[in-house]
Amino acid sequence: MKTFQEIREILTENKEKIQGTYKVKKLGIFGSYVRGEQREDSDVDVLVTFEEPVSLLKLVNFENYLQDMTGTKMDVVPEKSIRPELRDIILDEVIYI
């Protein structure tokens, strides 16, 4: 299991490639990895803002791309789709890459 810092470093090293390939405006990590509460079976919660609307297929491809890159299960959440009751909590803890 990779640590938060290891995942952050991988994403940071590949930031330009991620932005160019998938037109990502902002990318951040939130949830159990940020809080240091992750377990062996935890996925990494990733908050993303795209420069333009994306299809479900492109979102799934992006999630798979990040998983292949990091070797870690990812759960990608577009910022526009955050449930209103969770929005403030997520935005308060997200650490952007």
Shape: globular
- Named CATH architecture: 2-Layer Sandwich
Q: Taking all residues together, what is the mean pLDDT?
A: 97
Please indicate the percent range of residues in DSSP E strands (runs of 2 or more). 15-25%
Radius of gyration, in angstroms, nearest whole number: 13 Å
Q: What's the number of extended β-strand segments?
A: 4
Could you estimate the helical fraction of the residues in percent? 40-55%
CATH superfamily: Beta Polymerase, domain 2
Helix/sheet category:
alpha+beta
Structural notes for this entry:
- With 97 residues, this protein is of the alpha+beta class.
- It has a single domain, classed as Beta Polymerase, domain 2 (2-Layer Sandwich), CATH 3.30.460.10.
- It contains 5 helices and 4 strands.
- The protein is globular and about 35 Å long.
- The two termini are 20 Å apart.
- The mean pLDDT is 97.
How would you concisely characterize the structure shown here?
With 97 residues, this protein is α+β, with helices and mostly antiparallel strands. Helices cover 48% and strands 22% of the residues.
Characteristics:
22% strand; alpha+beta; 97 residues; four-stranded mixed beta sheet; 4 strands; Beta Polymerase, domain 2
Give the SSE map.
Blueprint: H1 4-13, H2 15-22, E1 24-30, H3 32-35, E2 44-50, H4 56-70, E3 74-78, H5 84-93, E4 95-96
Parallel strand pairs: 2-3
Antiparallel strand pairs: 1-2, 1-4
